[in-house]
Amino acid sequence: MDLTSAEIKNSPDEPSRAAEPGEFDYFDLIEDANDIIYTIDLYGRLTFLNKAAERITGYSRQEALGAQIGDWLDPESRRLSDEMLQQKLGGCPRTTYEVTLRAKDGRRIFLEVSTRLLFRQGIPAGIQGIARDITGRKRAETLERDRNRVLELVASAEPLEGVLRELCLMVERQLSGVRCSIFVLRDDRLLPAAGLDRSCGLHENPPPAVAVDLRRVPIQSQAGVLLGELLLERSGSAAEPEHERTVLEAALRLAVVAIEQRQLTESLAYRATHDPLTGLPNRSLFERNLEQALAEARRHGRALAVLFIDLDRFKQINDSLGHLAGDQVLVQAARRLHACLRRSDLLARMGGDEFTAVITDLSDTRDAARVAEKLLAAFQEPFLWEDQELFVTASIGVSLYPRDGRDAAALQRNADVAMYRAKSRGRNAFEFFAPELAAAAQHRLQIENSLRKALDTGEFRLYYHPQVDRSGRLAAYEALLVWDHPTLGLTPPSQFIPVAEESGMIVPLGAWAIQEACRQCALWQRQGLPRAAVAVNISAVQFARHDFVETVAQALSASGLDPTLLELELTENVVLRHLEESARQMQRLRALGVSIAIDDFGTGYSSLSYLRHLPLDVLKMDQSFLQGGGGRPIAMPLVEAIIALAHGLGLQVVAEGVETREHFEALRAAGCDRFQGYLWGEPLTAEAATRLLADGPPTPTS
Ligand code: C2E
Ligand code: MG
Ligand code: MG
């Protein structure tokens, strides 16, 4: 039952009529149309096609006529077009739907078809259709959808391999007949990360064993650094250079984002556990390792020694020769200490000039003494600094498991006590812990006891450390607690905050700091001084309390402070402990109008993905990002990445510990929003802070 062109107009309401000579020729109109115009019989065989069909599908009319149209359609499209036929037979005169069709060269074409039934003598005899090529639009849409899916994965902290696998699938969906694999550069080697190990079953049309075309495309960061390689294997189907270029560009950009995100996360994790200057494990990693070593010793009934190593008169080097010299000594000292130990021993830098070593597998106490002697001997040779010989010694305290303590805290405390003993005996020596030495621990108790009284007798002060904005204008003050101790003098927070936290005293003490900061800031406003916010540090113990929001609300109302001038600084570890509860607590605080900052970002378990889930305003980068490079920040690429990420999340970035002009300039160029550090002086008393506000911006001191 072939239909001819003359019958195309066949339908019950529009009786067939052949073109009269001289009359307008509808056939030309159909032939030259841009869209495909075709007819099929009820068995799905093509009975008529115009020129556009040849051009779009690549099949000649000879090949096409009589062919089963279903053979060219994707399975899903075939199902849809059958369904549409049923609808038409059921009385629906016209249907419009989208199908995908394989062109002769294997390309996938998206068509929007509009069809209706054809009748012969009132009986359905076939279908007439107009199909518009919407491939371009469809591709753009699906590419956009795929792209967003991959980006979602990146942001959801999916492992890199998973993200890249999705990326390969995206490329394969977009480019028919192509197989995609991705290699990532690790330790100077390109390692397969996704694509190669997938089974062929995943592919709709498995490519033949021998690829006809192989393309390797480097994956490069914006700065031109090679990150990996993308491999395209093409089987039989023809390339479409322009489309391929679009897809490849999108894929490469996504690959860069995914790989850089992972590098950033890894380097943050490394930074969180290592000292940037010496590369040794830091305190937090050390404590974890010590716990493990203790568990091991307990299991096997072995002894273990903890050695506290403190350089003697290190401060003098720092003060007389500068920080660069101090840094050099620390790096060299770390190397020498490391060289004295076995692989199974542990060494860490605890901060400043303090190192800790753990000697595992001790057969008797004399072993520990021998190691301590060896460590001291490592300092006999002078250290070199710019042709100068520097003589540096160390004092070492030793505690033994199980004799001097059964847990990590007791062993560390007692090694510390023993180290002080070595110092007080003239330095350059080691001491074993002895119970009599525990008296030092009494000191801590004293602090704890006098803490209670100190709040009542008004011994605490707030000092104010300026923060400037990008134009150097005074933008805020960080309020820092100081204890004006009757006998010890001005005592910095590091000496009493931990004790206050342990004893719970931090709750009333912290509440006082909030009230006092609010009172002072409100007073500045009433005195008509320029607007400057005040940032207050909040400890975990305070934040976890149910009445904390109430405490802040009361401080605000009692002082009358504009809440937008109050910023609360929380550390990562505080908010990460109970993420959901933290987010709720932060939400309540923000409802008061105050802003929330993450303090010391980069020292904890810095996870980028959790930031998205928290209602934050400010990210305060830790000082350690700026250390170790002399005047210049060494971790600049990391700093830039963090700033970009924070801005992407709508956060302001504050840099802390800005000590040199170079720091300031580099950070400003990287887009940092606020700056705090000794470059503008040390924290000020309330009176000095008031004067500074009145007098205008602080000028850098170096
Ligand atoms: P933080 O919140 O990270 O405060 C910044 C610390 O870095 C301050 O030390 C500040 O003086 C110091 N600093 C600022 N700029 C520079 C610089 O350029 N170079 C160097 N080397 N240091 C700089 P501070 O006053 O000793 O405070 C230590 C920590 O004590 C604070 O760290 C904070 O965690 C805690 N703290 C201070 N006040 C309070 C408080 O009221 N409540 C609670 N819970 N903690 C507080
Ligand atoms: Mg702070
Ligand atoms: Mg900080």
Structure description:
With 702 residues, the protein is α/β, with parallel strands linked by helices. 42% of the residues lie in helices and 24% in strands. The protein has 23 helices and 25 strands. Strand 11 (346-351) and strand 12 form a beta hairpin. It is elongated and about 115 Å long.
Detail the topology: elements first, then pairings.
Blueprint (H helix, E strand, L loop, with lengths): L25 H6 L4 E6 L4 E4 L1 H7 L3 H4 L10 H15 L4 E9 L5 E13 L2 E11 L1 H21 L4 H15 L3 E9 L2 E6 L18 E8 L5 E9 L6 H33 L9 H18 L2 E9 L2 H8 L1 H18 L5 E6 L2 E9 L2 H13 L5 E3 L2 E3 L3 E8 L6 H17 L5 E3 L6 H18 L3 E10 L4 E12 L3 E3 L1 H11 L2 H21 L6 E5 L2 H4 L4 H12 L6 E6 H6 L1 H13 L3 E7 L6 H4 L6 E4 L14 H13 L3 E5 L4 H9 L4 E3 L9 H10 L7
Helix pairs in contact: 5-6, 5-7, 6-7, 9-10, 13-14, 15-17
Mean pLDDT: 85
Tell me roughly what share of residues is in helical segments.
40-55%
Low-confidence stretches are: 1-19, 198-208
Principal-axes geometry comes out as elongated
Radius of gyration: 37 Å
End-to-end C-alpha gap: 95 Å
Q: Which percent range describes the beta-strand content?
A: 15-25%
Number of separate strands: 25
**Structural class, judged by helices and strands?**
alpha/beta
- Strand order, largest beta sheet: 17-18-20-21-22-23-24-25
Q: Oligomer, anyone?
A: single chain
